[in-house]
Amino acid sequence: MNASLIIPAYNEERRLPAFLRALSDFHASHGGMLYEILVVDDGSTDRTAGTAGAFAGPLPIRVIRLPMNRGKGAAVRAGVMEALGDAVIFMDADGATAPGELPKLLNALEHSPIAVGNRWMPGSHVTEREPFRALSGWIYRTTVGLFGLSSVDTMCGFKGFRRESARTLFEKLREERWLFDTEIMLRARRRSYRIANVPITWTSKRGSKLRPAVLIRAFFQIPLLAIRVRRERSPA
User: Fold this and answer.
1) What whole-number distance in Å separates Cα of residue 67 and Cα of residue 29?
2) What is the structure's pLDDT at 73?
3) Cα–Cα distance between 42 and 19 in angstroms, integer?
4) Contact (CB, 8 A) for 77 and 166
5) Mean of the pLDDT values across residues 64-80?
6) Among 155, 160, 88, 92, which Cα is nearest to 119's?
7) Which of 19, 26, 1 is nearest to 108 (CA)?
8) Whole-Å CA distances, 79 to 76, 97, 155
9) Per-residue pLDDT tens for 127-154?
10) What does each C-alpha distance from 218 to 163, 191, 208, 212, 213 come to in angstroms?
11) Mean pLDDT score of the chain, rounded to an integer?
12) CB 36 within 8 A of CB 60
């Protein structure tokens, strides 16, 4: 199984090169695993697109540019709808999850339509997590647990899908910013898709664009989102 790797990026000129260098090293030793790398520039105002394009030699990179900043969910969806690999995986541009974790997700996708990196399960190793991120993660996990997602690390930016499942789930995505993962996982549960949890090594990186106000707003939006997904037309 080969993979289309999607990297949503907004003003990531500084952090992206280190991650792409690590991907280049990984690709050199796992040549058949990455069919393509889709860097989706979400309306950046810096040189994110040019920085990504500079790695097009050692890596099978395609840069997709959105004309304006729409949000991480919109960027991931744009990549999903363009992806050609057997599997569709997205990772954060900061490199919090190292490329060496990719085989774990691909192995899980051999037996499940969805695989999610899970920082909370036994076998995972998390380093340098800031207190705010640890607390916000616990509160968010508790909240989504009320709607059937207690076992899923919905906030982890390392998720994979078989291509057909990805397109089915992302086609009608409405949450274009931070709640997009939650919408996708709620829709997957409603369709009774099996979700494999994968223990990972994850390192917190400085420069997160997630702010306390966004999280507070999200906590109030999750119940409404769950109701909306539940009311969607029954899957065929």
Assistant:
1) 35
2) 97
3) 17
4) no
5) 97
6) 155
7) 1
8) 5, 19, 19
9) 866 666 666 667 777 788 888 898 999 9
10) 28, 23, 16, 10, 9
11) 91
12) yes
